[in-house]
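Researcher: Checking consistency across runs. Here is Fructose-2,6-bisphosphatase again:
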Amino acid sequence: MTARRVLIWRHGRTEWNAAGRIQGQTDVPLDETGVQQALQAAPYLAAEEPDAIVSSDLQRAFRTAEALAALTGLPISVDPRLRETGFGPWQGLSHAELAERWPAEYAEWKRGETPEVPGIERPAEVVARMRDALADALGAVDGTLVVVCHGGAARRAVQALTGWSDEVAAQLAALGNCRWTELRLSSTRGWRLHAHNVGPLTGAASNDEPSTAADAEPAADDELIKASERG
């Protein structure tokens, strides 16, 4: 068996997303908005007629997956390898706190580099575990697979399937909360990107606030400015 289509769905919003704090592998729950985002986005994904659902074990992803499972009747397979990038001592900190406490390393991160900080996973490590998790999930289903995970992990999942370099993957915009990426398997070209940042256009899941767009990657300067303007 092999899936011919993969929908990579990022979890709903958390309080740390709204506050611009690095979550990494901290098990932060969905906030009220995140719950509503999952409930509003789930019918759109259910309409894609998925054949299987696999989720990160972190509760913000699993609770998002439950909204889809409730509509489809599908079981949720749980795989810890789908967790977000581990950010060690940076987890729980805001961008302002990172800039103050780790100025040189934070500047590296803003440039798209991975700082040499113990506890922060390297991109290749995340790609490797996502590749293994996806291979197992894809081998167990025919048709369409929904993968429920995290912002940074979603980027690495796309990279794992397509074989893109870090430089190419960096050009893929971060998924907003409860939005998804679609890839399809070509018999001649392998996995190809068909859609990105898909989701409802109205309601809580419309998700047009850039401050919610990144779990484990640096927000752009204009995103941080907009976040600070909202208080």
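Researcher: Does this match what you'd expect to see?
Model: One thing to look at in this run: Residues 3 and 141 are 6 Å apart (CA to CA).
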